[in-house]
């Protein structure tokens, strides 16, 4: 079976929708199920036979290499290319081409750095090879495709069009969307213009289609989640812990909870729903945590109730405080007896006194 030995990971985005999680940390480095999210993508690529990965970095680019180094700890050879000016998805792919060693007709895998997926990578490579495509796209089906670009295909899986976000029922001709993983014939990467921003979705793919190139779609409707919002990121982390989303990089057995070895959890605290307690974090007596992520060094005091929320590194949640769907930035202090709900975000290092907020929303 043909394998793709090389991959490009697009990890340059600013993660604006994820703030305050991404104020100090680029989105792919925010921990999911106990390790930086990017670790899961790297491990899955390695398991599918990839040996060499180039990270296309931009925002907070300096944090990637100190963590992953040359990739040898993951059985990979990792290299890094940093954009000085934002180049878009296509421009980022072209910008790292000089690091690739694949021949003109060999397959190169490309992943968006914010997608959690159960995609069968080897099946995508096989589909690409068998069809003889210039580019193959992972497609997934969604119930409401209005927020996505549609990718209709013919009976053989060949892509027939790229349709930007549809709004009227007449425009919704398929429920298939671009799921953010591709295989490019190496020569196609080299044909992308250099030195300017290029969108692979809006320029490269439609241009290839118009020129008569063969673009193949493979529908794989296993687990798929865009981690672009805090709520989605928290859910993705929980699904990794629960085993709903597959990853060889989860540091422990799948189950209701993942407590890193250096964390401290009171014996009567209740952790459910894929909750993660990070390194050196502390969970006090009687606290109840469901479907939530507690990052390194954070403290959840006695009797707090935390649901579907993310608590940043070094933050502190006071006793009996109730958090539901909240995001607490790194180093923030939420005093005792507060109630924060419905998507509220507390900025890094902010301080909320005891009993100061009974209820708030993101309206």
TrEMBL record:
Transmembrane annotation, as ranges: none
Domain (Nucleotidyl transferase) ranges: 7-239
Coiled-coil ranges (or none): none
Gene3D superfamilies: Hexapeptide repeat proteins (2.160.10.10), Spore Coat Polysaccharide Biosynthesis Protein SpsA, Chain A (3.90.550.10)
InterPro entries on file: GMPPB_C, Mannose-1P_guanyltransferase, NTP_transferase_dom, Nucleotide-diphossugar_trans
Source organism, top-level taxon: Bacteria
Domain spans labelled Mannose-1-phosphate guanyltransferase C-terminal: 255-357
CDD domains registered for this protein in UniProt: NTP_transferase
Family to which the UniProt record says this protein belongs: Belongs to the transferase hexapeptide repeat family.
This protein's name: NDP-sugar synthase
Organism (species): Streptomyces californicus
């Amino acid at each position: 079976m043909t394998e793709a030995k090389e991959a490009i990971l697009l990890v340059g985005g600013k993660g604006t929708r994820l703030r305050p999680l991404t104020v100090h940390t680029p989105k792919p480095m925010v921990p999911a199920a106990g390790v930086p999210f990017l670790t899961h993508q790297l491990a899955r690529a390695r398991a599918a036979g990839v040996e060499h990965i180039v990270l296309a970095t931009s925002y907070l680019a300096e944090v990637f290499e100190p963590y992953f180094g040359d990739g040898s700890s993951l059985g990979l050879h990792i290299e890094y290319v940093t954009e000085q000016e934002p180049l878009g998805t296509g421009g980022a792919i072209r910008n790292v081409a000089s690091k690739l060693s694949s021949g003109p007709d060999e397959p190169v895998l490309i992943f968006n750095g914010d997608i959690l997926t159960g995609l069968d990578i080897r099946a995508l490579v096989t589909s690409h090879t068998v069809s003889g495509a210039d580019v193959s796209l992972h497609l997934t089906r969604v119930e409401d495709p209005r927020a996505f670009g549609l990718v209709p295909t013919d009976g053989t899986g060949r892509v027939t069009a790229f349709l930007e976000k549809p709004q009227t029922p007449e425009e919704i001709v398929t429920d298939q969307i671009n799921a953010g993983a591709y295989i490019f014939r190496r020569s196609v990467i080299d044909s992308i213009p250099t030195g300017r921003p290029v969108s692979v979705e809006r320029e490269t793919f439609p241009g290839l289609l118009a020129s008569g190139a063969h673009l193949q779609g493979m529908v794989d409707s296993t687990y798929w989640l865009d981690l672009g919002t805090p709520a989605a990121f928290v859910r993705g982390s929980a699904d990794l812990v629960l085993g709903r989303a597959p990853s060889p990089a989860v540091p422990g057995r799948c189950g209701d909870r993942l407590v890193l070895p250096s964390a401290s959890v009171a014996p009567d605290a209740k952790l459910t729903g894929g909750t993660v307690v990070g390194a050196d974090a502390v969970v006090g007596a009687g606290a109840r945590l469901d479907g939530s992520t507690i990052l390194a060094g954070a403290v959840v005091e006695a009797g707090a109730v935390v649901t579907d929320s993310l608590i940043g590194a070094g933050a502190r949640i006071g006793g009996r405080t109730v958090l539901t769907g909240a995001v607490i930035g790194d180093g923030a202090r939420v005093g005792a007896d507060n109630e924060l709900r419905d998507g509220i975000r507390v900025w890094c290092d902010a301080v909320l006194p005891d009993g100061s907020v009974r209820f708030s929303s993101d309206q």
